[in-house]
Design a protein that fits this description.
Blueprint lengths: L25 H9 L10 H10 L12 H14 L12 H10 L5 H14 L3 H5 L3 H8 L5 H18 L8 H4 L7 H11 L10 H9 L8 H11 L5 H14 L37
Helix pairs in contact: 3-13, 4-5, 4-10, 7-8, 11-13
This protein binds iron/sulfur cluster.
The site of iron/sulfur cluster has 13 residues, from loops.
Length: 287
């Protein structure tokens, strides 16, 4: 549901929804980069209103996917997360493929506890191919949905050994024929290991934040990916996903995002922001 055209203000107490003291001088960085000097507690309401008016998207022709706006988002993501990579522990493409299959409905932290144990027990793809799913199930139980995941991992190993000579294929169409591999997993493996940009990884963080930043209006990951591929330069597809995933983990939480600490704040019109110096427009999305 759209929200009204009102600017969110900090409470008179100086406290506001979900805001905490920004770490490591983040406020200064935000102010410097966004020309906001009013982020933080104790700012006069008049100054807030002035900033909101200046940044209002109500001006004619506001287009959330305008190239300039998208470029600005990418620039700020670079400032926030310059060197981020995949958080799943792996040493080769096969290990990354397994880790990505196990990460569905689980956390990377959880998966990273399991994978070193299973890769020590079954060091090669051939070792996995020799298993039955039932034999693998106890080893991956803690990642959840372990029956389906065991079937996928063992099925993937068998196909990679039988059809691809024991090597994870680098062709996306071949990779998509491997059991347990859909576009997200294929993009993770191709992008993070082979550095091949065939698409944009769309996970739960990318879904939520792309909507908050109005880069898509869709819920379906395939449609979201298509939208992102249209507006983000191909040479940024891989890094963009990593950056957005880290942003979702560190600031732009599903519940109570830390907007007061976010470098994207004055160009973000998400309907569920916990702090805003910009006027909300009628199309602001709730995630
Ligand atoms: S301002 Fe808030 S909702 Fe928008 S990107 Fe930043 S943390 Fe997410």
């Amino acid at each position: 549901m759209p929200r009204g055209n009102t600017t969110r203000q900090p409470a008179k107490t100086g406290r506001h929804e979900g805001a905490r003291k920004p770490p490591n001088g983040a406020v200064n960085k935000i102010a410097k980069n966004t020309k906001h000097s009013n982020v933080g507690a104790g700012v006069p309401a008049r100054a807030q209103k002035k900033a909101a008016k200046k940044s209002s998207p109500k001006s004619k022709g506001y287009n959330p996917i305008a190239p300039d706006r998208v470029a600005e988002i990418l620039k700020r993501l670079n400032e926030l997360y310059p060197d981020v990579t995949c958080a799943l522990t792996h040493r080769n493409a096969w290990e990354l493929l397994v880790a990505t299959i196990l990460s569905a409905q689980s956390t990377d932290v959880n998966v990273n506890k399991v994978t070193p144990i299973i890769f020590k027990k079954y060091p090669t793809v051939q070792d996995f191919a020799a298993l039955t799913p039932e034999e693998l199930e106890p080893d991956i139980h803690s990642t959840g949905f372990y029956r389906n995941k065991a079937k996928s991992v063992v099925g993937a190993a068998k196909m990679i050994v039988q059809d691809f000579g024991g090597e994870v294929p680098t062709d996306i169409n071949q990779l998509l024929t491997v059991p347990g591999v859909a576009r997200k997993t294929a993009n993770v493996v191709l992008g993070s290991w082979f550095k091949i940009a065939e698409g944009v990884v769309v996970d739960t963080h990318v879904t939520r934040i792309s909507k908050r930043l109005e880069l898509t209006v869709h819920e379906d990951p395939k449609k979201i990916e298509q939208d992102l591929m249209q507006i983000i330069p191909r040479d940024r597809w891989i890094l963009f996903s990593h950056q957005i995933i880290w942003h979702g983990r560190t600031l732009c939480y599903a519940r109570r995002p830390k907007c007061a600490e976010c470098l994207l704040e004055n160009i973000c019109h998400a309907g569920d922001k916990t702090w805003s110096t910009v006027e909300m427009h009628k199309d602001a999305q709730l995630t």
